[in-house]
Amino acid sequence: MVLGPNGAGKTTLLQVAAARLHPTSGAVQILDETLGAVDVFELRPRIGLCSNAVAGSLPERETALNAVVTAAYGVTGRWREEYERLDERRAFELLDAWGVSTAFDRPFSSLSEGERKRVQIARALMTDPELLLLDEPGAGLDLAGRERLVQRTSRLIGAEDAPATVLVTHHLEEIPPGFTHVLMLRDGRTVASGPIDETLTAETLSETFDMPLELHRRDGRFSAFAAS
Ligand SMILES: Nc1ncnc2c1ncn2[C@@H]1O[C@H](COP(=O)(O)OP(=O)(O)O)[C@@H](O)[C@H]1O
Ligand SMILES: [Mg+2]
What we know:
binds magnesium ion; ABC_transporter-like_ATP-bd; 6-stranded mixed beta sheet; alpha/beta; two-stranded antiparallel sheet; binds adenosine-5'-diphosphate; nucleotide-binding; ATP-binding; P-loop_NTPase; AAA+_ATPase
């Protein structure tokens, strides 16, 4: 988990972790590779990224299925009939796993916010990545949509073959049960980092958001309110 207020640098950090952005100073190691000493076009398919920036770059009329399947094309780098069919089948299965297969032939832009989020996650999973990065996947969802996303994400990270997953949010309610570690950021700096159970406290949270906060925890879920 990466937690922090708006402008803390969460998205920037994730762009670096996704090998989409180079730091101006310092060294970055991702999946045992060093950024700058590795071909990013080989590294990127090993990393699934779900962010609004990716969604925004999809063509207007792209169908949900194509929004997922095109994530594979950068990998194969060539077009063959047999790849195409296999890729489409995989894309459809991913849409199905995230409960949006009925929307497969609808334009991505016409989908509801919740459907779009799930299509984006399916897209991020298309290359069967070793590392999955989710930048505020719950943003803009209604209560039921958020809860469904939390449940599905929790199931995803609990699977035996799950990729290492990093989820960015500024809402504690969006933390799916099963995440083990947290990095708390404020103004581009680390406030605290470590196992969630020890690290996420009312104190670190108050410091991260620069406000006295109360932290509540129940059955692996979190919420927070202004301290009274
Ligand atoms: N470590 C950093 N050093 C310099 N600038 C940073 C750093 N982290 C974030 N920024 C800048 O701060 C701004 C907000 O960062 P962003 O990653 O969008 O925050 P968040 O996703 O947490 O809201 C961006 O303009 C970004 O370039
Ligand atoms: Mg952000």
